[in-house]
């Protein structure tokens, strides 16, 4: 027994001495990598654990030996060996804190740092525009592109380069808390007037800003509930009424709070956001001095109610309390300074999916009905959009052929007490070329007949061609740009005026879009659009063709 116990103790002692010596040498001036140090530290811990088990074994053997009077000398020797091993363990334990990798390299290897994701994106887009100069006005960092009707209505030949830089940090702090921060610099090359400093910047407030900054409280009360508070992008469906305006160099975000409930069967959310905070002002004519604009919205989505499709029910309230200058005054339905707010109640439904048993056919149908107050008039409007496509999966390039019809009601008498023009709310009209990629049409007073074909020659290359034919719903109402404003700037004859043309043919548009994934993190997008005016534009404005082209590179890291 004595020899067996002696071998056990000596083996453990030798292992501990070897690990301590090895780790001491590894963490010196010529030490190994952090990964090697962590491995050796773990080996030391394992040796210490092994020694502890061996000591317990020795103790058990000692108890057995105590029962025999002829083993007293062996027990005394073992006691001395155990004390020696304990001293070695104490020395190793005292050395362990100085050997931790995180203590040597800061917090890079801390558990929290491992839950933080850092990323960024640089998007550069060169554009050329000739014709109706509408595209740049959505970018905020580009001077020009707006003004009186005489400026918008004449042919303009211009080229410009937009640059958007985003950096973000996404931290899953713990099971119930997530924090997301995204910085954005949006600028146009040369718009500041000089390459030295920032003199004469067109709009300094939109160059560098926090694009998104919010926190998520997840699994609240151990339910599938997430509460998001802060500045955030919000996208519903095809961006038709709520979108992030992603094509813009600046984009759209909402400042507010959002509740999201998500299970395998349903998705529900509700949010309230501040669109415009003006504070108290004596300019208001309703005597309360409140000229803020808010949005309140709720959505209920059923994932399994319709086979192969998602069903969404929506409610949106646009609450613009600026009774001096709101969308009713901007579109010429109310005089500037009228005493009524714009409060629109929008009820929508959307179905998006594929035909069961025939997934080559995809379809989307979305419709909205609106009531409420549009300044001094009653809001009574509606819209519908329907698209379908067939993908030939067995053919080379897997072509998809699609058709679409979009309708939004117009007002046949802008001077009466009923406003029947559909309000496009807060969309991304450029998304998927909903009403043409050139962004000269919005979901207001319009019939849009669309056909397209998309092919994928390689797994990196996608080519799409679209054709649109636009008709006005009510020629007395007018033509609305993608930003919701009248293409002519003001109504003929002033507030409540009607257009004289009795022809509803508005325009035709052809779009060519090419996307190429150069590398995993580098994407190239190019396109060309041609907008041909028809009778209504020729009667009310001029016979102006519009050409627009772009080349965009997006690098994500």
TrEMBL record:
InterPro entries in the record: Alginate_export_dom, Alginate_Permeability_Chnl
Highest taxon, organism lineage: Bacteria
Pfam family, one: Alginate_exp
Name of this protein: Alginate export domain-containing protein
Sequence ranges assigned to domain Alginate export in this UniProt record: 151-540
Keyword ATP-binding found: no
Organism this protein belongs to: Candidatus Jettenia caeni
UniProt feature coiled coil, ranges: 34-95
Record SUPFAM superfamilies: Porins
Keywords: Coiled coil
Gene3D superfamilies per UniProt: 2.40.160.100
